[in-house]
Amino acid sequence: CAPEPLTSRPKHLTWEEIKIHNGRGQSQQQWLVIDRNVYDVSTFSKQHPGGSRVISHYAGQDATDAFVAFHNDKALVRKYLKSLLIGELAPDQPSFESNKKKSLLEDFRELRCTVEKMGLLKPNYTFFFMIFLHLLVLDAASWLMIWYFGISLVPFLVGMAFFTIAQIQMGWFQHDLGHCSVFRKPKWNHLLQIIVINILKGLPASWWNHLHNQHHAKPNCFRKDPDLNMHPLLFSLGKTLSVELGKKKKKFMPYNYQHKYFICEYFCFLGVL
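That's the Cytochrome b5 heme-binding domain-containing protein sequence above. Prediction below.
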């Protein structure tokens, strides 16, 4: 799991120089760090296949772990990185920002290497085939129940149960497809995801990927994770919480209260699906 070396090694840069190129303030440039190499993604972010926001969220920061997590074919991606390379961290500079805990990062990277060696990230095609088959059967059964038995109470409730379970399972199946976890090639994941979420569920895959990629790029990070953009009409702490965190300059959610409002989020999420 050692980082793959890049060929050219331009000028040395410090974290002070990198942090000011975060796309905000006077400098609109966006620099980020991957394996101690510094890249200027200011222009590339607009053409980034995963969306401009995902990569822009790491402007002025170390994006090594996000890069590893989001890209399966790293050799292919590194070909595009060569033209964006502008320098590397100076020898006296740490590999990540000062506000990150070294032991935590090392533990996480060791865990990822262990998971990969154990083969836990390899897809089980039989499992996913059975998931897809059973949700199609449930979806068809819901319509056949109404068509054959009519719309009296019992057939309606049974059909509704079949349809609800199928829709929820479709949501999680397309979730795995959106993560490119089912097939080795991304194009097959995206194709089947479009069939499941666009056709069977009636939602755009591009919309889901745009929001969910940001969520995993910056999970629970205030103003960067779309899942935290709670509507004040749906969540009583939505607008109030935003103002409170803004005044206190906090960048995280009050996790100690999460168990109290999670059930509301869960049912609203099911309603969206």
